[in-house]
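Researcher: Good morning. I'm working through a list of sequences from a screen, and I'd like to move beyond sequence-only analysis. For each chain I'm collecting a predicted structure so we can compare shapes side by side. This is the next one on the list. No need for commentary yet; just the structure.
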Amino acid sequence: MSNKTKIFIDGSEGTTGLRIYERFEGREDIELMPISSELRKDIKERKRLINESDITFLCLPDAAAIESVSLVENENVKIIDTSTAHRTEEGWAYGFPELSDAHRKAIAAGKRIAVPGCYATGFVSLVYPMVTEGILPADYPVCSFGISGYSGGGKKMIAAYEAPEKPAQLNSPREYALSQSHKHLKEMKKIPGLLREPLFSPIVSGYYSGMVVSVPIYTEFLQKAKAVEEVHQVLEEFYKNEKFIQVMPLGAEEESSNMLAGNACSGWDGLRIFVTGNKDRILLSSQFDNLGKGASGAAVQCLNIALGCEEDKGLCL
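Model: Good morning. Structure tokens for this chain:
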């Protein structure tokens, strides 16, 4: 009898699903349950595989992810959902274990795990500790901006950017979500405990993967730790001993000419935090791969926690 964990990836042909599949190469503790291409949208076949699995990954649009959850009849099946659908829902563990012992334990014990959004990962990594440690008031009018590679837009956007002939505007970074209704805003508000959704301006650029998310803050409105050095120390202490999150030394940005490149962490499953600025204004920035800690890497990290093995097993750190 096999001791391998049976894994089904519902949506295995999408960008996130493919990256999860790649991270299982060479793992002897996992048995992947394939679905043929012609049946990948067949509800009966998906239902069978979901209920015969130990753990099912959902790499689907929100409506399809909700449908897949409704197909679960086997109470022992764990669901790890990479969509937006369940990230703020009751009964779902938020898949960001570095935030607290409670988050890590909820992932380890939970049957329903929601993987954070890519932009939300960068934002929450910065704002959650600031609010939790009493530095940033919950009613602070937070704003944020971020830049990402085009792989975050899914298959259609990837095809558009990689087409032999493409519109001239695709050669330039493009700001979007102009109506302030980005799908990650709900978790960006709830998870750190903010009283209002942040002002958020995302930008997509013409490189494949990687992102930087930044949060500028006026020091006069901070409740304590008002200096760059003090804020850096708080974040360094908050994430100490975490494999996946590196709070970079003060001045580390000088090694890259005082610039943070969006693609610097492409192919890596960790996240770097930079604290820069001056006595009046501090800039918090997170640099990571939208397909790594921002999606597939985080999903596999959650799986590893659920299985009780090393969190970085099969991942690139």
